[in-house]
């Protein structure tokens, strides 16, 4: 009597040796599609039952194919790589990735495809045909496997379980892709550079960056995209469609990824942990950006100068300094901005909106960065430390200005005189002395000022606001400079020493 192990070996041996009994009539398309009996010449007509599970099959060849899933037997070897396959049709499909053979041609757009079912799906993209209707909702799909995948969202069925963690998936292909996060495998290689990818879709998307291919055209504007999913997301900007609804509040999102990220604001989840410090992030992209602060990596290089940046958004912003492009126009005045955030912040000067409220006093601010700077007046925090002396600063701009006192760097030159400045804002202030411009207008009288700080000081004389409070007496001041001077009356500090003589010598 055979043991279970011997029985397994027998089945695997049968699976290998019986391949000669299976004749492939035509290369079978296998991708979550049902195998049709007319694609195979059946040698046995009655039901064949698997001895290791309760499944049964109409032919011996299909039973043999199935039994390989129990024993992990992969007898079909690629002659160009070390890939092996359990089915000969999968080997045939794989070999096409080497030969570039795409036998299924679509004559309306000239595209060709590896597999017939992909060609059929592509044809339906042109025709809009979606014959596969869900019986539980009103959604319809162009391909049967997409319907099957969708139906699992109704029943919560995730039959494909990862054996290395507790994650489960509704599709086998998703499990295979997930496994690569454990193994680090990247089997899909770009033919034009040395990049490799864990998913074929990512490789295809990347390759379009080499050829500039954007096959997905919006029918409402002239934009085109390299991915169908990107086109669908774009079209929602025309329709205003936000199909992804949060079940904890009334917010809705056009992208599922936006909803997932939003959910983390409710749960506080930060799944992306830095392996060099204790910081964690709700988004993987933020983790990647943070890790560059450890490595010093600046992958985004300006093609017009030698500057490089941690983030792509910073590069785009910088490139506008070369082009002078200000695409973000205020609809209430004639000002335009190079950054969307700058426009949003500017529009608050029209509405009076100050959404960032200090939790230690009653002050509110136009932007988050101003609130962070203000908080430091409560905490005394000076995070910006000079590495050439012992001075520290609460604001980065003051820190940068100070560092230039060590280097004597004045990169901002006036084009009307020979003066140069260490900061762009100082140059702008100086240029007002040439133009006489006073763009900061007080709304309660007719006075105007060339600098915002002068307007703020003037406003305090009207409101009697003295935000600088000394903690050793009850004096308050409208300006930081007066506050510092007053401190010295308590400390006795006299920082300005004459170089003509030393009083202590008399």
Automatic annotation (TrEMBL):
<keyword id="KW-0804">Transcription</keyword>
<dbReference type="InterPro" id="IPR013087">
    <property type="entry name" value="Znf_C2H2_type"/>
</dbReference>
<feature type="domain" description="C2H2-type">
    <location>
        <begin position="384"/>
        <end position="411"/>
    </location>
</feature>
<keyword id="KW-0238">DNA-binding</keyword>
<feature type="domain" description="C2H2-type">
    <location>
        <begin position="300"/>
        <end position="327"/>
    </location>
</feature>
<feature type="domain" description="C2H2-type">
    <location>
        <begin position="272"/>
        <end position="299"/>
    </location>
</feature>
<dbReference type="GO" id="GO:0000978">
    <property type="term" value="F:RNA polymerase II cis-regulatory region sequence-specific DNA binding"/>
</dbReference>
<feature type="domain" description="C2H2-type">
    <location>
        <begin position="216"/>
        <end position="243"/>
    </location>
</feature>
<feature type="domain" description="C2H2-type">
    <location>
        <begin position="412"/>
        <end position="439"/>
    </location>
</feature>
<feature type="domain" description="C2H2-type">
    <location>
        <begin position="76"/>
        <end position="103"/>
    </location>
</feature>
<comment type="function">
    <text>May be involved in transcriptional regulation.</text>
</comment>
<keyword id="KW-0862">Zinc</keyword>
<keyword id="KW-0539">Nucleus</keyword>
<feature type="domain" description="C2H2-type">
    <location>
        <begin position="440"/>
        <end position="467"/>
    </location>
</feature>
<feature type="domain" description="C2H2-type">
    <location>
        <begin position="160"/>
        <end position="187"/>
    </location>
</feature>
<keyword id="KW-0677">Repeat</keyword>
<dbReference type="GO" id="GO:0000981">
    <property type="term" value="F:DNA-binding transcription factor activity, RNA polymerase II-specific"/>
</dbReference>
<dbReference type="Pfam" id="PF00096">
    <property type="entry name" value="zf-C2H2"/>
</dbReference>
<comment type="similarity">
    <text>Belongs to the krueppel C2H2-type zinc-finger protein family.</text>
</comment>
<feature type="domain" description="C2H2-type">
    <location>
        <begin position="188"/>
        <end position="215"/>
    </location>
</feature>
<feature type="domain" description="C2H2-type">
    <location>
        <begin position="104"/>
        <end position="131"/>
    </location>
</feature>
<feature type="domain" description="C2H2-type">
    <location>
        <begin position="328"/>
        <end position="355"/>
    </location>
</feature>
<keyword id="KW-0479">Metal-binding</keyword>
<keyword id="KW-0805">Transcription regulation</keyword>
<dbReference type="GO" id="GO:0005634">
    <property type="term" value="C:nucleus"/>
</dbReference>
<dbReference type="GO" id="GO:0008270">
    <property type="term" value="F:zinc ion binding"/>
</dbReference>
<dbReference type="InterPro" id="IPR036236">
    <property type="entry name" value="Znf_C2H2_sf"/>
</dbReference>
<feature type="domain" description="C2H2-type">
    <location>
        <begin position="132"/>
        <end position="159"/>
    </location>
</feature>
<feature type="domain" description="C2H2-type">
    <location>
        <begin position="48"/>
        <end position="75"/>
    </location>
</feature>
<feature type="domain" description="C2H2-type">
    <location>
        <begin position="244"/>
        <end position="271"/>
    </location>
</feature>
<feature type="domain" description="C2H2-type">
    <location>
        <begin position="356"/>
        <end position="383"/>
    </location>
</feature>
<feature type="domain" description="C2H2-type">
    <location>
        <begin position="468"/>
        <end position="495"/>
    </location>
</feature>
<protein>
    <recommendedName>
        <fullName>C2H2-type domain-containing protein</fullName>
    </recommendedName>
</protein>
<keyword id="KW-0863">Zinc-finger</keyword>
């Amino acid at each position: 009597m055979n043991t279970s192990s011997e029985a397994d070996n027998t089945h695997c041996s049968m699976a290998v040796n019986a391949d000669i009994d299976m004749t492939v009539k035509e290369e079978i398309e296998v991708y979550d599609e049902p195998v049709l009996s007319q694609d195979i010449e059946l040698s046995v007509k009655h039901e064949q039952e698997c001895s290791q599970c309760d499944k049964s099959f109409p032919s011996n060849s299909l039973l043999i194919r199935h039994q390989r899933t129990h024993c992990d037997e992969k007898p079909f070897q690629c002659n160009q790589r070390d890939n092996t396959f359990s089915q000969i049709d999968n080997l045939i499909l794989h070999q096409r990735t080497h030969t570039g053979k795409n036998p299924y041609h679509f004559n309306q757009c000239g595209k060709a495809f590896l597999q017939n079912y992909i060609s059929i799906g592509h044809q339906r993209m042109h025709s809009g045909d979606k014959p596969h209707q869900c019986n539980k909702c009103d959604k319809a799909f162009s391909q049967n496997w997409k319907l099957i995948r969708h139906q699992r969202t109704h029943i919560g069925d995730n039959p494909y379980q990862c054996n290395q963690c507790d994650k489960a998936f509704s599709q086998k292909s998703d499990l295979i892709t997930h496994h690569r996060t454990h193994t680090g495998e990247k089997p899909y290689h770009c033919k034009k550079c040395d990049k490799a990818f864990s998913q074929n879709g990512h490789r295809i998307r990347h390759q379009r960056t080499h050829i500039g291919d954007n096959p997905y055209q919006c029918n409402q504007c002239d934009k085109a995209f390299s991915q169908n999913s990107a086109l669908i997301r774009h079209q929602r900007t025309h329709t205003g469609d936000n199909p992804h609804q949060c079940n904890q509040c009334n917010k809705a999102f056009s992208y599922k990824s936006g909803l997932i990220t939003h959910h983390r604001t409710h749960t506080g989840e930060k799944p992306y942990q830095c392996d060099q410090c204790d910081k964690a992030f709700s988004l993987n992209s933020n983790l990647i950006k943070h890790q560059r602060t450890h490595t010093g990596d600046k992958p985004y290089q300006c093609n017009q100068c030698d500057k490089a940046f941690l983030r792509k958004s910073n590069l785009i912003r910088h490139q506008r300094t070369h082009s002078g492009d200000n695409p973000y126009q205020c609809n209430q005045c004639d000002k335009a901005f190079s950054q969307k955030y700058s426009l949003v912040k500017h529009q608050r000067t029209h509405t009076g909106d100050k959404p960032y409220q200090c939790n230690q006093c009653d002050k509110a601010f136009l932007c988050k960065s101003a609130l962070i700077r203000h908080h430091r007046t409560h905490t005394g925090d000076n995070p910006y430390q000079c590495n050439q002396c012992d001075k520290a600063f609460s604001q980065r701009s003051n820190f940068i200005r100070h560092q230039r006192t060590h280097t004597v760097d004045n990169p901002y030159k006036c084009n009307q005189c020979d003066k140069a400045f260490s900061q762009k804002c100082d140059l702008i202030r100086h240029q007002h002395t040439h133009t006489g411009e006073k763009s900061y207008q007080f709304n309660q009288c007719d006075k105007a000022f060339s600098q915002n700080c002068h307007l703020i000081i003037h406003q305090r004389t009207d409101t009697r606001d003295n935000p600088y409070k000394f903690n050793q007496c009850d004096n308050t001041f409208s300006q930081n400079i007066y506050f510092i001077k007053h401190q010295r009356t308590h400390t006795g500090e006299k920082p300005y020493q004459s170089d003509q003589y030393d009083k202590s010598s008399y």
